[in-house]
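Hey Z.,

So I finally got round to the zinc ion thing we talked about over coffee. Here's the setup:
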Amino acid sequence: MKKIFWNEMTMNEIGALDKEKTVIIVPTGAIEGHGPHLRVDCDSFIVTEIARRVALACQNQDITAVVIPTLQFGYSEWMDYPGKISLRSKTFRSVVWDVCKSIVDNGFKKIIILNGHGGNPNFLAITAQEFYQEYKVIIPIIDYLRISIDIIDKVIETSFRHADEGETSVSLALGMDIDMKKATKEVPYMPHEIPKAKDILGAPQKVIIPLTKITERCKSGVIGDATLATKEKGEEIVHAVVERTAGYIKKFLQY
Ligand SMILES: [Zn+2]
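And the result:
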């Protein structure tokens, strides 16, 4: 089995990789409050483990995918629960830019961003667009929620929000140690109705509004119902995310 993580490889091992065909996966997460039962690095944990599984699935299709260290800090400015460590949007975009530029400086042509945090996609999209203008390198952004949205809506009973049924189920499936006795339920007023995940994440969105100070309306940090979470629900979502992302990478290499 080939090594998966960039940081575990030697300089010569990285130097010997096929620069045209190797896919470099850039996981982007966040450090922010995730209720009384989940770790503050929940998004980073999830996206790191998904990236590892995607790279393994790529190996099974004879594709080399290497995962760089997860960008642990994301854009969480509106999420003021204890434990938040956030980058301002301009800092976040600069960090993503510099990381991708370093990968290009190493000679690699195929980069994919795998995102696990809902505050990041707008800024990732701007960065990828401007990066293309500068370097003519296309960086697709795969958001694990969006790529599995139909499965999420089929599997979970509530809408995918934050530290809730969906996110807790995925965390359980990926092996996070969670005390489910601490899982709670809180459904605060939202400025838009979200019956299902596709209604907030589906494209085109009917209404786009900024992320608002949810901490004033939701004390527990669980937006939704975490008590409904199960490992089995999470496994179904993770399976779809890994299979579809690896499938996308195969197509991307032919582009
Ligand atoms: Zn999260």
